[in-house]
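tmp note - Nitrate ABC transporter substrate-binding protein
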Amino acid sequence: MRARRILAALTAAAGVAGLAACSDPAPAQSGWSGAIGSVNLREVCPATIVVQAGWNPEAEFGALYNLITRQPRIDRDHKITSGPLFSHGEYTGVDMEIRSGGPAIGFQPVMSRMYQDPDILLGTLDTEQAIVSSATTPVTSVFAPMVKSPQMIMWDPATYPQVHRIADLRATHAKVLYQQGEAYMSYLVGAGILDKDQTDASYDGSPSYFVAAGGKAAQQGFASSEPYTYEHQVSAWNKPVAYQLVADTGFDTYKSTLAVRTGDLAKDSACLQRLVPVLQRSAVDYFASPDAANTVIVDSVAKYDTGWSYDADNARYAVRAMLDQGIVGTGPGLGSFDMARVAHVLDVTKPIFAAGKVAPAADLTPDRLATNQFIDPSITQAK
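out:
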């Protein structure tokens, strides 16, 4: 089952100092020697573009894995998948290395890994994570693979036929299971959408509590995963769940953005100017034809053997769910940021983190959290 650990505000702030150097090997080299196509990254980027993911391989990272489907190499020991970086079928002159997160790095914050290891060019993280770490490990997002977060709260529609949105759960007094440290839950309580005494922070990723409750509990999850797994892979449940995206309640964060260390933005700008449009095009290509990348994703999960399962059916469901529910965008400037929305997330989370005795950077502004500087506005994904 999917058991994602989201960065808790207190852990993020306290855990960034004094960490040991990361144990990942030097960036892998594929040795690919073919002709470079129309996009030459070798001129301006590192020989291997290293990306630190925040979780295990999955379809939400499909735009990344889509770049390394040509002779991918899976490192079981270090939980790394790498290969020559191809864009639109053409070699770009460099390799890409995707390092798994979550259990592979002891659930350490991606920002911490980025500041430990200068080889990491990009890390995947959420807007609220960038906010809470801004005073110690500042990062700036340059590409948003998803226009909406797939984070959701789900419930049993047979037990609660009157519930159509998260706010309707308040009148039922149902326990709502979530993982400790989730900023969105503080928002839901603070906004009066849920009562604090009905929230339960004991969720550990296992379906056991939800199943044992026999439909009387609600639970956090991801619209790109749990609706499928609970109906088809949790044998003790095996029926549909209903849900609402947390984004539709007003906590509209950007999920799994690709970010760089803020202080390196100028230094890396020549590379990012060419690389970010490659990421945009890869997202378009992935959702048009996901099978090759999904094979790399599923094979990586199997070989990593971290105790988490993810098969081809999970990946296919995730792709369709992200398209059908508007989790991935279709407009021009694919992967760009609405800066008013970034500002809103900043305004919403500041008091949440202050209550947890964590202070974001005093002079933090939306343009330090995200930038559209490298986005090609002409790149659009078909509906």
